[in-house]
Amino acid sequence: MDLFDSMRIFVRVVERGSFSAVARELNMGQPAVSKQVRALEQYLGGAVFARSTRHLALTDQGQRFYSHCQEILSQLEHATRSFASGQEQIAGPLRIAAPVSYGRLCIAPLIGAFLQRHPDVQIDLRLNDYNEDLLMENIDLAIRIGLVKSEGLVAVPLGTSTRRVYAAPAYLDRHGQPREPAELAGHNCIAFTLLEHYDRWHFTHRGEALEVAIKGNVTSNNSEAIREMVLGGLGISLSPQWLFAADFEQGGVCSLLDEYQTTALPVSAVFSRERRRSARTMAFIDFLRENV
């Protein structure tokens, strides 16, 4: 077993959520992909996936190992890029796309520090919750949250976006607090529709995968709108921690079901395989890896 190859395959299975999808992507048979993951589990001495009939979820140990794999493989990619890039000047225009809330809260505050380090770069930050066509829109780099399924894109892992279940005290006062995920089925849940299978929320608890079919009287394709509705006491959301971090500290929302792990979403910097990797693009990716 080649450990690095097995780690790469494992990471792609997590990101794609499917053994068969990775097999098609890598032009391998599905049994070969499964064999690589089983060999990795044998090497580690434990399961990385809590397999169920409907959903492929990570075990607690698998989630930690996934984070380490992202970091190790990213460091390897960084070392390779550094060797190849030589002394190309870090200068010129850099067009970056990002989701609206993540761009506002997590990317925009970092721009000033990056430009202090590289003052000859000019940044155009485009915020849009829809995945734009990087080539058509002439975008150098995009930040994606969730699985990157396009085979025409190169994805560099930046980390994961941990999610929690949130509700305002006013909502909980009226409807009570769920004590386990199954009780969410009886609550007004606000779903973010840009995620695949947005009407099913997944949890793990002590290695067991749990799936809850949620329902509610409102959905949205914009996380800022969901935040406002949750703060207004309309319902419960499964949202990234960064979206509600300030509200949670100020007591505007409560974090629920904290003993249950939710599926963390991968955060990636992506660029087109057909577009040349400029030094400024690579410098911004390295900067994000240090600071996000």
Task: Please summarize what this structure is.
GO terms for molecular function: DNA binding; DNA-binding transcription factor activity. With 292 residues, the chain is α/β, with parallel strands linked by helices. The protein has 9 helices and 15 strands.
Structure, explained:
Residues 1-59 form the HTH lysR-type domain. This is LysR family transcriptional regulator. Belongs to the LysR transcriptional regulatory family. The protein is α/β, with parallel strands linked by helices. It folds into three domains: 3-85, Winged helix-like DNA-binding domain superfamily/Winged helix DNA-binding domain (Arc Repressor Mutant, subunit A); 92-159 and 266-290, D-Maltodextrin-Binding Protein, domain 2; 163-263, 3-Layer(aba) Sandwich (D-Maltodextrin-Binding Protein, domain 2). It is built from nine helices and 15 strands. It has helices at 3-16, 19-26, 30-44, 60-85, 100-117, 169-175, 223-231, 241-249, 279-291; strands at residues 49-51, 56-58, 92-98, 121-127, 141-145, 153-161, 163-167, 189-192, 200-205, 208-213, 219-220, 236-240, 254-256, 261-262, 265-272. The strands form four sheets. It has a five-stranded mixed β-sheet. The chain has a five-stranded mixed β-sheet with strand order 11-8-12-7-13. The protein has a three-stranded antiparallel β-sheet with strand order 10-9-14, with no helix packed on it. Helix 1 (3-16) packs across helix 3 (30-44) and helix 2 crosses helix 3 (30-44). The longest helix is centred in the N-terminal third of the chain and has 26 residues, at 60-85. It is globular. The mean pLDDT is 89.
